[in-house]
Amino acid sequence: MSLPVPIAVLDRLMPLHVILDADWRVIHAGPTLHKLAGGLDLAGRAVCDVFQVEGQRPRALHNLVNRALSIRLVHGMQPRLRGILLALGDAAGGAHILNLSPYITEWKRLGAAELSLTDFAPTDMVAERLYLIEANSLAMAEANSLIARLQGAAVTAEKMAVTDTLTGLHNRRALEQAMHRLIDRAVPFALMRLDLDRFKAVNDTHGHAAGDAVLQHVARVLREITRATDTVARIGGDEFVVLLNRLTSPPTIHRIARRIIAQVERPVPFDGRECRVSTSLGTTLSTHYDRPEADRMLADADKALYTSKAAGRATHRFWWPANGAGPPKDEAPG
Amino acid sequence: MHGLFNRSLQRFLVATYGCDMWDQVVRVADLDAPEFEALLTYPDKVTGDVLCAAARILGKPAEDILEDLGTFLVSNAPSDAVRRLLRFGGADFNTFLLSLPDLPDRARLAIPNLDLPRFRLEERENDLFTLECTTRYPEFCHVTLGALRAMADDYGVLVSLDLALQPGKGACISIRIYEACHHEGRNFSLGLRSP
Fold first, then answer.
1. Bridge partners for A52 per DSSP
2. For residue range A215-271, what is the model confidence (pLDDT) as tens digits?
3. Rounded to two decimals, what is the model's pTM?
4. In this structure, which of A34, A220, B29, B145 has its CB flanked by the most CB atoms within 10 Å?
5. How far apart (Å, rounded) are the C-alpha atoms in residues B117 and B135?
6. How many angstroms separate the CA atoms of B13 and A93, rounded?
7. With a cut of 0.90, is the ipTM above it?
8. Do residues A85 and A69 touch, judged by C-beta distance below 8 A?
9. What torsion do the CA atoms of A138, A142, A144, A150 make, to the nearest 10 degrees?
10. How far is A106 from chain B (nearest CA, A)?
11. Would you tell me which residues 38-67 of chain B have a C-beta closer than 8 angstroms to some C-beta of chain A?
């Protein structure tokens, strides 16, 4: 069967088509293709002056009848187009029709052509495709901004956290808050710093999981030996701080320190083996200062801790205002 | 109610009446957070509380606020997004009306849990349509009325619209087209926008 189809019908159904005569010259171009070519009159031009066939090697269009094509319009917006080339039959005197459609990836480039829905057949999926792209990118933008806000909230929450996740002890932020509370209310207290001995060896020999088990063991010891009103914090890898509330008697504090050392030194079973660490301690008292300051007290307790380490580890030293770190008063000579 | 509705309402109130008015709404409605998230879902009561608060503060019926919201979404929203998405429905106003029954499914392609009203369009006579909106949220019907008014203007068409609420079901909007080319509509170019 053969149908004579008016050009106006073709223009409406396939606004991106071209009719080519037997010599492969353009007889007619559809209205939207005309637009994409920048308004250029394509009639009379040789097909190779209008389109460039894409492929592994350039081929003449007439070898590609009845095959899906990828070509580029060489005029105007120069969009990449997909298409199909078909013979119109003997009655048409060897003419061909090439119908085209822009690749979806070309739509950014085609923005300048000011195409509207009337430039496409109402049956064309182009409106659906573009609708989807716009709707999805809007939804994605909302989702991304929601994720960014949630991420910000998570970071804030982390910053506001006051607990060390490994040991459940307070962290440095909580420690500072607790010290400021004691100082503001002029509550006397002792600040004790601990640093584990031989911790690095445990990590190196038995691995980080063993190290974590040791840290949890130390946290347990500190919680057991201190009272509920005291503050226990882990402020670094193997560094701990204990605030002893309303306790400034050096002999009592020294006894507590000795108990801590003894308990910490108990072997920690891990994976069928035993891990052993010890601890050095340094303490300062809020009563040493006219106006106690958190940073100053932490630094002074650290000096006493350093003296403990230098004295052969597994010991406890106080910091004294007059002569710096020294042995605890009850052990001090004279 | 979907957060997109609450978020749109918030954006409309802030853009039209200012941040102070919105702060007042937050206080009067006793909202947990001062901002709605477009992709979360909120209890229906929250939307009602916001509308009641806005109506009290503005001394204006909630229905009118919702209708203004519909118009705002199409004509004034800074992103132009809703207008563009609706314009994909058709090259002219009549085709656009015919596309409305597909709208809820189309919306769900982008936002799967968005429950727009179900639309049924009937052509009563030449240039007289009735649009049945079936929804459990009567709020949507008033927004639809405002949006339709703005879309007619966008296409350059002169229409009169009439809304009859059907309690518990939704509403019926009658649409009479007086002049299909009353004025030049706004341009709608297909070129992709970057959001």
1. A72
2. 999 999 999 999 999 999 999 899 999 999 999 999 999 999 999 999 999 999 998
3. 0.65
4. B145
5. 5
6. 67
7. no
8. yes
9. 180
10. 9
11. 38-40
DSSP bridge pairs for B132: B120, B172
| d(C-alpha B147, C-alpha B134), whole Å | 16
pLDDT digits (tens, 9 = 90+) for A25-61: 999 999 999 999 999 999 999 998 999 888 756 567 7
Where chain A has pLDDT below 70, the residues are: 56-59, 323-334
Residues in contact with A319: Cβ distance below 8 Å, sequence separation at least 6, in sequence order? A282, A283, A284, A288, A300, A301, A303, A304, A325
Quickly list DSSP for B10-43: HHHHHHHH-HHHHHHHHHHTT-SSSS--TTSB--
Name the closest residue on chain B to residue A125, using Cα atoms.
Answer: B88
Sorted by sequence, the CB contacts under 8 Å of residue A185 that are 6+ apart come out as none
From the list A302, A209, A192, the residue with the least C-alpha distance to A250 is: A192
Taking the C-alpha atoms of residue B46 and residue B40, their distance in angstroms, rounded to an integer, is: 13
Q: Do B190 and A132 touch (CB under 8 A)?
A: no
pLDDT digits (tens, 9 = 90+) for B2-45: 999 999 999 999 999 999 999 999 999 998 888 898 888 999 99
Find out whether B143 and B111 touch, Cβ atoms under 8 Å.
Answer: no
Nearest to B111 by CA among A137, A120, A36: A137
Alpha carbon distance B162, B179 (integer Å): 17
In this structure, chain A runs to a length of: 334
For chain A, the straight-line distance linking the first and the last C-alpha, in angstroms and rounded, comes to: 125
Long-range contacts of B101-104 (CB under 8 A, 24+ apart): none
Cβ contact A138–B37 (<8 Å): no
The DSSP 8-state label assigned to residue A223 in this structure reads H
Given a contact cutoff of 8 angstroms between Cβ atoms, the answer to whether B158 and B179 are in contact is yes
Q: Write the DSSP string, A72-124.
A: EE-STT--EEEEEEEE--GGGTT-EEEEEEE-GGGHHHHGGG---GGGS-TT-
